[in-house]
Amino acid sequence: MLEIVIIGSGNVAQHLIKAFKKSKKIKVVQVFARNKESISHLLPISKITSDYNNLKEVPVYFIAVSDNAVAQVSSQIPFSNKVVLHTSGSVAISDLDDKNIRGSFYPVQTFSKNKNIDFTKIPICIETEQETMYKTLDLIAHSISDIVYKITSQQRKALHLAAVFVNNFTNHLYKIGNDICIENQLDFEILKPLIQETANKIVNLSPNEAQTGPAKRNDTQTINSNLNFLTNENQKEIYKLLTKSIIDNGKKL
Amino acid sequence: MLEIVIIGSGNVAQHLIKAFKKSKKIKVVQVFARNKESISHLLPISKITSDYNNLKEVPVYFIAVSDNAVAQVSSQIPFSNKVVLHTSGSVAISDLDDKNIRGSFYPVQTFSKNKNIDFTKIPICIETEQETMYKTLDLIAHSISDIVYKITSQQRKALHLAAVFVNNFTNHLYKIGNDICIENQLDFEILKPLIQETANKIVNLSPNEAQTGPAKRNDTQTINSNLNFLTNENQKEIYKLLTKSIIDNGKKL
Predict the structure, then answer these.
(1) Tell me, what's the ipTM?
(2) How far is residue B185's CA from residue B175's CA, in Å, rounded to a whole number?
(3) Is A214 buried (19+), middle (13-18) or exposed (0-12) by CB count in 10 A?
(4) Chain A: nearest CA to B244, how far in angstroms?
(5) Minimal Cα–Cα distance from A110 to chain B, Å?
């Protein structure tokens, strides 16, 4: 079994620990956590360290910490010529300390505490500066997921950005929907089946095929009626910009 | 059994016909369709008419046609003092011909051709100008769905608008995600599990609790890096506006 160490104790680290536990090819021999208690429910306390000087020597290290801590953490690893992988969508692998072989292992998913998720269905995007290391990365990724992509730094940047649109920004649209419900004494529950179906639709249809609504139909009457209804200037601005974008896109088709 | 007639042959009409077929309390005695063939797979041709003069007399009529045709269709019904319900989110019930008892029966969902959907889980919002009619509307709605809300015209307007945000606009964000993938030779499949999970998250979390990403963290470095990556001015504008909206919202919390 390939031995690895995971540095971090947040959502991504915890979900990785759980996923690797089920793997027959990878063994998590140690986890670094500043606060040992935070992950003591996942593995024996003897396998957790909060001291870089006690870090075990293994062929592969995972850095699953917040983006702005990745570089600093990588320089704390007291070994060299190991494979060091971060799990961030937006950090360049060149930010990692170059005493080790740098790479990234990016699971394209949003993780919540206390919510189990089937890791086998999460796409993992792998990248390394040393071509010969892809075999190892591929082995690790396939040990927990069925979906593995080899990507470049540029592609990872693009993917992270696309994820901001489909995840962070989409959630903000849910928030606006929720706000409109609250303002009008409506139960947000009413919108949840629609939200689910909107996400389900694009499993089989392209987003262009799935597009509906007043902007798609260029239905000026409904658009104006919607705009008149809105009193919040921020919501109005978002409505106008996204409507214009849908209409412009329709012209290009 | 309560007898009804459905006018229309589009997605909503077809899904309603299928749903009422399973109901033991409602009987669809006739459907009006300009093109009989379009729904001949759903019921015997003898039950389909394309002539308003042949419309059967029943207590309740459904108008499930495109928004801008609702008013005109309602005036073609050759009866009066019947219950006439349209299924639109954005048409006022006062747009219906006042020779009949006007109301709306709004299933808050997006319907696709050839995609079956469990109607029992679709919230149906009912509204009528005559208070005594709610019992009938409630009976009809509950005959096909477990989730029924009595709402006002103003609330239906709000709901339709909220649906534009969480459905139409969300789908457009998927489209932008797809575009970014295409431009960078990435498979849009990579984003689909994330899209699903984004929708799943808000089943148990409020959109405010579920919000993540650089804007939520006010992570200026990542925001600027994302903006530098974008070359499409329209995408840039949408990125800026939604980021600003998330940041401003965070300040209010």
Answers:
(1) 0.95
(2) 15
(3) buried
(4) 9
(5) 6
